[in-house]
Structure formats: C-alpha cells, structure tokens
Amino acid sequence: MDTRMSLYHQKTKSTKNYGQFFKKYAWLIAILIVLLGSIFGYVAYQSYENNMINKYQVKGIMISQSNGYIDFVTLANTGQKFVYIRASQGATYTDDDFSDNFQRSQGSGLQVGSYHVFSTQTAIKDQLKNFTREVGDDYGTLPPLVEVTSPLSDDQVHRLSEFIYMVHKYYDTNVVVRSSTSVFNRLDKKIDHDVQFFSGNVNNKRANFIEVKNNRKINIDGSNVYVNQIAFNGNKKGWQQYLLKNQDR
Asked: Which InterPro entries does the record match to this protein (predicted)?
C-alpha cells in the first residue's frame, strides 16, 4: 500500500476517534469548562473584593452576640482599628454579650463604640432608657450609633430624629446614624450639626463610615469569624482628626 495512503487512513481514523471521544464525553467536558470558569470567576471576584476593602486605610467591624467570642487584642493585630458593639434594640431587647464584649475590648488598642437598633414599634423614651441602662455612662471612644434596618415613613423618620436628639442630649455628643440615604436625608434639620452618616454605599463621599462587606471572613487566632466589615471614609490623618474632634464632648 502506498505510504501516503496509509498515513491518510491513519490520520482519518485518528480524527474520527477524537470526534467520537469528544462526542461521548461532551457532558464531562462542558462541566469541566463551567467549573474552571467558576473557579476563575471566584478568584477574580475575591481579588477585586480584597482590593476594594484594602483601599480603606482605617477598617473596623460591627459585632453582636451572634458573632460569638472575639479576642479583641488579636482582632487589633489583624489590622482592624475600631469596633462597634451592639448594646440594645427597641425598648426591651439587650445583647447578651454587650457587657462582656465592651469590657474585654478595653485596652485592646481598638477604638470602641456602642450601638442601638431603632424600632418603629416602641416608644422612643423607652428605647432611650433601654440603651442608656445597658450602656451606662461610658459609651466608648466613638460616638453612639443608631442603626435603622428598614424603610421609614415620614412620621417614623420624625420619631427617629427625636430619638437621635435624645441620645445626643443624654451623652452630650454627636450621634452616628446607619441608614439608607433616603432616611438620612429626611432627618429633621434641627439635628444636622449633631449627626454623622454611616452609609451602605461605598461611593458616598458624605458618609463618615461605610459598610464595605457584610459577612466577611476574618481569621482571628486560627479561627474564621464572619463579621460586618466597615471602614472610616477617609485616610489615617483624617481618622486622627475625627477622633480628636469627637473626644471634645
């Protein structure tokens, strides 16, 4: 047989075998392509997310009893600079771990603040009593924070404004409000100079604080802890100026 003809038949047979192989295992190849694409996409997203977080020079976290035990000295060694600890919610609920968390956070090198979750269902005077009873006279080194977790009607925004003003008067300090931009923009103008904004929008230049990533995994002393990663919306110099300004009560 002609050598050229033999090579042609071998090549044709080989091509046919490849075609049969790809046809037989097409489902497996498709799965592998999707899997590799997913892995590449996840790695790329993680890289983007880490770059976004790391662009903030001053980072911190928000915690509650759901986060479990946290070693605050070790937390400070991971590069976090501050922590907000939940104290209360509404008129009756208090965080089981607030007192322990607050006491253990002292001397850690972290700036510490206390926060209350605002309720639309209970009287604001009762909420103030609940928050101040749990926190006491020492709310920390950061302004008290009021968190709003849902949209509010105009009447509810007015009640929120009154509550913020009451917290401001009680502690004679500024108050940080974590809410949507819509809620924040509708707060009563009489409290403008006493209120600071905590925004969920990373591009909000007006905000003092930013929510960078909810449920971020941080390794603390060998254990993975999921926390709400937040940041001061400024550089290190701005952070020092912010601290000095808010220490002048």
From this structure: Glyco_hydro_25 (IPR002053)
Task: Please answer whether residues 164 and 194 qualify as being in contact, where contact means their C-beta atoms are separated by less than 8 angstroms.
Answer: yes
Q: Where residue 218 falls among pLDDT bands split at 50, 70, 90?
A: confident
Query: What are the tens digits of pLDDT across the range 113-167?
Result: 999 999 999 999 999 999 999 999 999 999 999 999 999 999 999 999 999 999 9
Strand 223-232 and strand 59-63: the pairing is: antiparallel
- Could you tell me which residues are beta bridge partners of residue 187? none
The whole-angstrom separation of Cα 130 and Cα 25 is 65
Are 137 and 190 spatial neighbours (Cβ–Cβ below 8 Å)? no
CA distance 72 to 163: 30
Q: Is the dihedral of CA 199, 201, 206, 211 positive or negative?
A: positive
**Stated pTM of the model:** 0.80
- Which stretches within the chain are classed as H helix? 3-24, 26-54, 72-77, 98-105, 124-135, 154-171, 181-185, 236-247
